[in-house]
Design brief:
Elements: H1 2-16, H2 23-42, H3 51-70, H4 76-85, H5 92-114, H6 123-152, H7 157-160, H8 168-199
Helix pairs in contact: 1-3, 2-3, 3-5, 5-6, 5-8, 6-8
């Protein structure tokens, strides 16, 4: 399955890069994918992840790629959601920030438990620390956005995607926290079963 997921993400990445709305914004938005993919390929034998995590990482990558192709404020799906729910702005960026908490929380959980950084019996502590990691990822991303705004000025508008919302940074981090909490609450047991199956295989 990881090979198929990688192929889907690679095709989406190439297609999105053919004629994006804004080339620089596209590059900044898909940069996490360009960093993560080689790391996952390099560690596929020494530390293979659960199939659940590979799937979630691929979905997160597709969210980033889709947002990068149009810029978050102009994603067609977001406009449909804006009309359907009667919103005042394109909400697609919130999907991205929800995933920014949802996926990293489970990545952190798997590394903490399978890497034996925590006693496997300490599931609650693993969940707490995984949520903290997800929030740290979100905070770092917001700092990157702030840095882009300082360096690029008005040129960073498409990357920031605030759409005039003064509490955008806080709401972005709030959605990341919500994503982490939902992932840890709903998927921890499924995640545990997958890690248990993976433990019987040589890592």
């Amino acid at each position: 399955m990881p090979v198929l997921l990688l192929a889907v993400v690679a095709i989406a990445l190439v297609v999105s890069g053919i004629s994006p709305t804004d080339r620089l914004t596209w590059l900044m938005e898909v940069l996490p994918v360009l960093i993560a993919a080689p790391l996952l390929i390099a560690t596929r034998r020494s530390f293979p992840l659960t199939s659940l995590l590979y799937l979630l990482i691929a979905v997160h990558a597709l969210i980033l790629i889709y947002g990068g192709a149009y810029t978050y404020a102009h994603v067609p799906l977001g406009f449909w959601m804006e009309d359907w729910f009667g919103l005042s702005r394109n909400p697609y960026d919130k999907i991205g920030h929800f995933a920014q908490g949802f996926v990293p929380a489970l990545v952190a959980r798997e590394i903490l438990l399978r890497g034996r950084y925590l006693n496997p019996r300490h599931r609650l502590m693993a969940g707490f620390l995984s949520g903290c990691v997800a929030m740290a990822v979100s905070a770092v991303y917001e700092l990157i956005e702030w840095g882009a705004a300082v360096i690029m000025g008005q040129g960073a508008d498409e990357f920031l995607g605030t759409q005039g919302y003064e509490w955008d940074t806080q709401s972005d981090m709030g959605f990341a926290l919500l994503g982490a909490l939902v992932a840890l609450t709903l998927l921890s047991r499924w995640h545990d079963r997958q890690m248990a199956r993976l433990a019987v295989k040589p890592v």
